[in-house]
Design goal:
By secondary structure, the chain is largely without helices or strands. 8% of the residues lie in helices and 2% in strands. It contains 2 helices and 2 strands. A two-stranded parallel sheet has the order 1-2. The radius of gyration is 19 Å and the shape is elongated.
């Protein structure tokens, strides 16, 4: 996505900070102590805590209970959240470079404008966070996730599209360019106008997904399920549709852009 668009995203998200200026519930040292005293096999308990704007980089939150935790603007660079419970957590403007959310429960999280790179250019893979096997069902996400490992992740009913009612700083879209989304579950998700160019969507479940004006150019959908998906005005330039299931029930395929250039 163009850097100016993401500058607008960050500027718009920064407007939320006025309502998040209060002090965090815990200090960094108190968070470290709680993690250190957690018993084996039972993660630390932080549910409902305000941990906004703390520098928690490099900490290991594996299997911790972080439900509804406010991580607004927190630095989570290189932090580990493997198997953690983050249901309903707020990660808006959080710094998540190299953070590992593999197999974490991120259902219903808010992930708006997270910092994924030290540059406004395309984020380098060396800084990419990891979401392999994570559950992001029902999540609201607006982020640059270029090249990110999201294999087998769940986005059931997630809100990943453009909200035309809330575009004060220009159109803000999710960017999954070249992301690894093999086997991901997007059933019922809203992906309108999202960028999935050159993404690996092999064996992905896109049944019932809204793909209106979604950029699928160069994406690999081999073996994916498109049953009842809405492909109206989606860009299918060089999109690989080999072995796709349910295409005959997809809506708007006849109105997709460049469908004659799709590879079937």
């Amino acid at each position: 996505m163009r850097s100016w668009a993401w500058g607008a995203t960050i500027a718009a998200a920064a407007l939320l900070a006025a309502g998040s200026a209060g002090a965090a519930d815990l200090t960094v040292d108190e968070v470290r102590a709680a993690l250190a005293t957690a018993s084996p096999g039972h993660g630390a308990e932080f549910s409902g805590k305000d941990l906004s704007e703390l520098d928690l980089s490099g900490l290991d939150f594996s299997h911790a209970d972080l439900a509804k935790v406010d991580f607004f603007g927190a630095k989570l660079v290189g932090a580990t959240f493997i198997g953690a419970r983050l249901t309903g957590a707020r990660l808006d403007l959080a710094w998540i470079m190299r953070a590992d959310f593999s197999d974490a429960d991120l259902s219903d999280v808010s992930l708006f404008g997270p910092v994924v790179s030290t540059t406004m250019a395309v984020p380098p893979l060396s800084e990419a966070p990891r979401f392999a096997g994570a559950d992001l069902s029902g999540a609201r996400i607006i982020a640059r996730l270029n090249g990110v490992d999201m294999r087998r992740a769940r986005f059931v009913g997630a809100r990943l599209g453009v909200d035309l009612k809330n575009q004060p700083m220009g159109q803000m879209r999710n960017d999954f360019t070249s992301a690894n989304l093999a086997g991901a579950d997007f059933s019922g998700a809203d992906l309108n106008r999202a960028v999935l160019a050159f993404a690996n969507l092999t064996q992905a479940n896109l049944s019932g997904a809204v793909l209106f004006r979604t950029d699928l150019s160069g994406a690999d959908l081999t073996g994916a399920d498109l049953s009842q998906a809405d492909l109206t005005e989606a860009d299918l330039s060089d999109t690989i549709l080999k072995g796709v299931k349910g295409l005959e029930t997809a809506k708007g395929f006849d109105k997709a852009q460049n469908r004659d250039r799709a590879i079937r």
